[in-house]
Amino acid sequence: MSTHSGDVSNNDSSINNIDSWSSVTELEDIDFSRLPRPRNLNIERQGSYDEKSLTETQLGFSPHPPSRAENFFRALEHFDCIFSPSKRSEFTTPRSPFGQGPHPMVAEAWDSLRRTLVHFRGQPVGTIAALDNSDEKLNYDQVFVRDFVPSALAFLMNREPEIVKNFLLKTLRLQSWEKKIDRFQLGEGVMPASFKVLHDPVRNTETLIADFGESAIGRVAPIDSGFWWIILLRAYTKSTGDTSLSELPECQKGMRLILSLCLSEGFDTFPTLLCADGCSMIDRRMGVYGYPIEIQALFFMALRCALLLLKHDAEGKEFVERIVNRLHALSYHMRNYFWLDLKQLNDIYRYKTEEYSHTAVNKFNVMPDSLPEWVFDFMPVSGGYFLGNVGPSNMDFRWFCLGNCIAILSSLATPEQATKIMELIESRWHELVGEMPLKVCYPAIEGHEWRIVTGCDPKNTRWSYHNGGSWPVLLWLLTAACIKTGRPQLARRAIEVAEQRLSKDGWPEYYDGKLGRFIGKQARKYQTWSIAGYLVAKMMLEDPSHLGMISLEEDKQLKPVLKRSASF
């Protein structure tokens, strides 16, 4: 067993050095009494510290005029929907303030969610992936970083932030472990995909076991874990007004270590991150290697969150400058080359190939014959979306839910693009929502393409699991995107569809079929993020100001979309 030789922070840190990279017995807890007293922020919708642009934050520019979504929020404020730090969600009380009781599924969901809590040394530190005891546990009895996000948001919205704080600190300590797969050592900033608590009743000890990818299917490190950690840290800060956690030297260092991994210089000619297959929610071989939209959107959002959380001290200033430069390049690249609407589809259809010059229009040498037949009918006149992947001679035209929703919430999508994404979802409701929200990607790959792309994966057959399956957890992301774009009625419609079956079916992990009609053939029941995703969606509709935890306003200083032409 390898040992850890470094220290996660300076000597007076409240987080102690850890001597094992794969398991820890009698792990010392953080002395919470030594943490600085919380410093409360003045939480207001207008003028909030994290809704300012990069230039406004750094140079003092004036805020931009209110957008359509901002006007929507201001209208909601007249109906007593303002977030109150002293108020829990009405979904935990017997009656709603509007004269109607909460949906009966809500109480069941909260009860199920609380039964997934994992404790370490008497403190809740996360939620397990699923409560289903009908099948082999595999790794569903572990706390996954990405899976915990909707659970964390539910607890934050219900004014129970302590579990989120414990989770953030515990995973931060795990980041400091030495991480090896065979004889290769992973980067210092890699966050674990998951962890579990082992109880030894004989010795009366508890041990943490972390997985950084060495036990995962395909042995792929989770790129998204670090991004979700930063995003969740910002959500905690925004929700509680407590900046003392993010200002801890350990949290500042943890963010810098994550950023060092993805801002390092190399051979890349694009500002996007090059990824292996299976490094995110789609954790099996599904042809998402290269520059997948999910990772790029999470990368963009994590950069923006880190910019708000990093101190402007000697170490932080260097990263702030690098983040600003990367955000400008990344937003330009994504908004231009990943965006697809009817006009751009027609342009690609007419592309010339083998262009060799700085004035090339077809910059990635994409072959027009590679356009799939389905995309011509799928693209509505007024809609659009971010492509699944763009690289040399490659465009993945599949629609991916998580990446497009995060693009809206992070404001990677311009207001016009966000509107078009929502118009596409509404126009293609039958295909993307069907009988159970929401397709993780569309369409499914099948036949020879499925054999080549997935390696004949029996779990990712057509319209199943990651290959066009319907995932209820995505309901919270859809709801957040709907509220931000001023379309809460669309979210309500999706929630009502889910409420017809989700509880009766035992809160499955995913559904199969073109319309999501069938419980997934290998889906676990009582999947925690299916439960938490529903609760978060309901609570955001009840109090739309909760959206502020997970949404960032548009930064006007980022360069706008420029039209492709032979002149640039």
TrEMBL record:
Role this protein plays: Invertase that cleaves sucrose into glucose and fructose.
One MF term in the entry's GO annotations: beta-fructofuranosidase activity
Phylogenetic lineage: Eukaryota, Viridiplantae, Streptophyta, Embryophyta, Tracheophyta
Keyword entries, A-Z: Carbohydrate metabolism, Glycosidase, Hydrolase
Family per similarity comment: Belongs to the glycosyl hydrolase 100 family.
Pfam entry (one): Glyco_hydro_100
Assigned EC number: 3.2.1.26
Organism listed in the record: Solanum stoloniferum
Listed name of the protein: Alkaline/neutral invertase
Main enzyme class: hydrolase
